[in-house]
Amino acid sequence: MSHSKKKIAIIGSGLVGSLLAIYLRKYGHDITVFDRRPDIRNVKFSGRSINLAMSNRGWKALHEVGIDQEIKKIAIPLNKRAMHVIGKPLYFQNYGKENEAIWSISRGVLNRRMIDLAEASGVIFKFEEKVWDVDLPSAELFTGETEKGEWKSYKYDLIFGCDGAFSRVRHKMQRRSRFDYSQDFIDVGYKELTILPNADGTHKLDKNSFHIWPRGNFMFIAMPNLDGSFTCTLFMPFEGEVSFENIKTKEDAKEFFTTYFPNVMHDIENLTQDFFNNPTSAMVTMKCYPWTYWDKVALVGDSAHAIVPFYGQGMNAGFEDIFVLNKLIQENKDNWGTIFKKYQESRKPNADAIAELSYRNFMEMSHKTADPMFLLQKKIEKHFAALHPEKWIPVYSRVTFSDKPYADALAYGDKQEAIMQQVMKIPNIETLWNSKIVEDKILELLS
Amino acid sequence: MSHSKKKIAIIGSGLVGSLLAIYLRKYGHDITVFDRRPDIRNVKFSGRSINLAMSNRGWKALHEVGIDQEIKKIAIPLNKRAMHVIGKPLYFQNYGKENEAIWSISRGVLNRRMIDLAEASGVIFKFEEKVWDVDLPSAELFTGETEKGEWKSYKYDLIFGCDGAFSRVRHKMQRRSRFDYSQDFIDVGYKELTILPNADGTHKLDKNSFHIWPRGNFMFIAMPNLDGSFTCTLFMPFEGEVSFENIKTKEDAKEFFTTYFPNVMHDIENLTQDFFNNPTSAMVTMKCYPWTYWDKVALVGDSAHAIVPFYGQGMNAGFEDIFVLNKLIQENKDNWGTIFKKYQESRKPNADAIAELSYRNFMEMSHKTADPMFLLQKKIEKHFAALHPEKWIPVYSRVTFSDKPYADALAYGDKQEAIMQQVMKIPNIETLWNSKIVEDKILELLS
C-alpha cells in the first residue's frame, strides 16, 4: 500500500494553507492553493494582525517538514512577560523554566516566507481567484469574479478548506442537515497599532518580552518585530465607558493613551494615526462538526475552529491539526475516508478545549483581574507551584510548552480549580495564604 | 402619534408568517407575503409534519385578532396523555386541572385556513417566488427562479423574516460581524406516519388523548385529526442498535412495529408504506442574536429561535412573538427602531428558555426514563404536588397552561430541581418517598 498521486486543492494561502501545502507536496501530490486575495508578497499587510506567538506545538509541526530553523531566523524569542501596571514599576514574569519561550513573529513576514517555501517545493498558487462554491461529493470547486457572474469549475480528488473563520468551504457544509455550527462574538474588539523603532533601528522596549498593559476590561499588548518596531494590539470593549465607540476624535485618542498608557507617550502621534487608520476588528469563537465530507473535503485550522486570541494558540492549534493529519496519512496511506474520520475525531475535543481555555483567559483578563479573591487565588497557586513544581504545573505551561492534548490541559486545569475552590474556603485565607496549613491542604487534596 | 401606512414584506407563508400578516393588516399596512413554495392550499401536504399542539400562548395570540373561535373548529382538545407502555394496560394521565387541554391541529389544515383569513383581510400572497437576497439597510429584497439567474428587486419599508429554521433573511444577517449564531442537531430523527380512520370514519384510538408509546431512546406518538385519522410521529436515533439506519427492508419495518408497537399492528401495512415513502427528518436547536436590523428587518418565529419539538411549543412561541410585537407596536406607534429593540430584548431570554426546556425534555425522554432514581423523583414530585397543588406547580403547566414568561418557568423548574436534588439524598428515600418526612423536607426547602 503506497501513497497514490492526488490532485489536491487547498482553499486559502494563509499560514495553515501554506504549511499544509508543504506537507502534502512531500508525498508528490499535485497541489494548487487558491486565494481570493492578492499575493501577500506583493502588498503591504493589512493592519489587522495580532502578532503571532509561536510555541511548542507550532515549532513541532514546522520541524516535521524541516523548516523550523528557517523560520526561527524571522522570530524573536520572548522568555518573559513585561508587566506595565499603573502605579507600579515595570516588572517581569518568566514564562517557565529555563529555555522556555514563546516566539514573536509578524504574521505577514511569516506568511510570505511560507508561501516562498511552498512554491519552491512545487506548489501552484492561484491568487485573486475567488472560490464561490464547492460541490462536496465530487470535490469540484467554482471560481469567478463575482458570486452572480460567470464561474469556472475545477475538479479535484481532495479539497482542503483552510480559508479561515469565515470559510466558504464550511459555509457550504453548513447548509447540510445535521451539521452543528456556532459563532459567538465577544463584546471586545481589537485594533492594531505600531510602536516605531528608535532612530538607530533598536527596539524602544525590551525586545525579549511580551509587553502587557493590563487595565481591567481593556488591555494593550506589544510584541517585537525584527525591524525594531513593535506590533501592538489594543483590546477594548466596543461599547461602554472606556470603549472604541467613545474615542471619536484625535483629542479623545491622545487623552486615552496619556491617561492609561503613559509610557507609550513617545509614540503618541503614530498611535493616534494608527487608531483612526486601522480597522476595529471583532473576535469570534467558531465551532462546527463534522469537519470532513466523506473522503473528499476537510477543514483545517480556523475554518474548523476559530478561537479568541487570548491564549496565543490559534496558529499553533492549526499547525497541530496538520501534524496530526500527517501522522494519520502515514498510517492509513490512501484511505482518505479513514484519515478524515480519525482526524476529526481526534482533533475535535482538543479544538473545543483550546476554545474554552482561550475564552476563559479572556473572561479572567477582562472580568476577574479586579477581584481581590481571584488575585489571591493566583498568588496561592504560584506560591505552591514554586514549592512543588512537579505537583502543580500551570495550565499555561501545559498548553504552551508541551504537546500533550489540549483536552488534557483543560481537564487538569479544572481539577486544579476544584482544589482551589476548597482552599479559598479556608477561614482567614487572606492571612494564611502562604502558610503550612494551606500547603498541606493542597497536598491532601491533590492526593 | 398614529400608525402611518407602511409597505411591508413578510418572507414565508407558514403559520407565523400568515398570522403576522393578519396582525399587521389590522393597522392598514400594505402587506405582501412571499413564499418560495407553491400555495399550500393547492398541494397535498408534504408528509414531514409533526401535528401541532396549540396551547394557551397560541390561543391567546389568535384571540387577540379574533380568530380563535374560527380555528377551534378545526382543532381537537386533548385533555390527557394516553400511555402505551409495554407490559402494562393502556393508562391515562390528565394534563392538568379541569378544562386544561392542548389542542391537536393538522399543520396543513391550519396553515390553509390562516392563509384564507389573511387573504380575506387584504394581504397579497406571492407563492413560488424565491427570495435569494435581502439588502438590510434599504429593506430591498431580490427574487428569481435560481440563485445565479436573473433577479427582480422589491423595495419595502419593513421586512419580516418568517421563513423558518433555515431562514434566508437570517442567513443574510448571519454574515455580518458580531452576529451570534448556533445550530445544534440532535442524534434523533423523526418520520411522519398515519393511522387511518375506521371504515365508518371514527378514530381507532381515543380521540381526546395525546397517545404516547415511550420506548426508552425511541418513541411513537399519535395525535388525532378531524377526519378520523391520526398523524403519528416516530422519533428514533439515526444510527445505533434500534435506529432509522437499521430498518432497511419492509420486513425490518414490520418486525420493528410488531415488536415494539403491537397495538398499532392493525395499521401495519400503511405504517410500513409510510415508513419508506416519507422522509426521515432532522431536528435542530437554532439560536441567534440580534433578531433585528435597525428599524428595517426583523426575524419572527423559527427563523429567530428554532427548537426541538419535545415541549410542543414551537408554534406557540412563534405566535407569542407576534403577540408581544403587537403590544409594542401599540405602545410605540411608528417608532420601529424602538419596537424592534424592545421586541428582541424581551423575547430573546424567553426563546432561550423554551429552547432549553425543550432540549431537556428530549434528554429526559431519551436518556433518563430508564433510570429508576429519575422515575422515583418524578413520582415524589407528583405525590407532593397532589398534596400541595398551590405550592408545587409542574413546569409543564407553567409552560403550557399559562402566559407567564418561559424564562420564569425555567427558573422555577431549576429551583424545583435543586430542591429535589436535596430530597433524593435522604437515606432510604426509596421506602420513605411518600412519607411525612419527605413532605416536610420539601416544605422546609420551599420556604
From TrEMBL, chains A, B:
Biological process (GO) annotations held by this record are: anthranilate metabolic process; kynurenine metabolic process; L-tryptophan catabolic process; NAD+ biosynthetic process; quinolinate biosynthetic process
**According to the UniProt entry, what is the EC number of this protein?**
1.14.13.9
The cofactor required is:
FAD
Q: Which reaction does it catalyse?
A: L-kynurenine + NADPH + O2 + H(+) = 3-hydroxy-L-kynurenine + NADP(+) + H2O
* FAD-binding domain sequence ranges: 7-356
Task: Name the source's superkingdom.
Answer: Bacteria
Keyword vocabulary terms for this entry: FAD, Flavoprotein, Monooxygenase, NADP, Oxidoreductase, Pyridine nucleotide biosynthesis
Pathway given for this chain reads: Cofactor biosynthesis; NAD(+) biosynthesis; quinolinate from L-kynurenine: step 1/3
Has the keyword Flavoprotein been applied to this entry? yes
The residue ranges crossing the membrane are: none
The record, for SUPFAM superfamilies, names: FAD/NAD(P)-binding domain (SSF51905)
GO MF annotations, alphabetized = FAD binding; kynurenine 3-monooxygenase activity
Which HAMAP family does the annotation name?
Kynurenine_monooxygenase
**Biological function:** Catalyzes the hydroxylation of L-kynurenine (L-Kyn) to form 3-hydroxy-L-kynurenine (L-3OHKyn). Required for synthesis of quinolinic acid.
Please report which protein family the annotation says this sequence is part of. Belongs to the aromatic-ring hydroxylase family. KMO subfamily.
- Under which name does UniProt file this protein? Kynurenine 3-monooxygenase
Which gene underlies this protein?
kmo
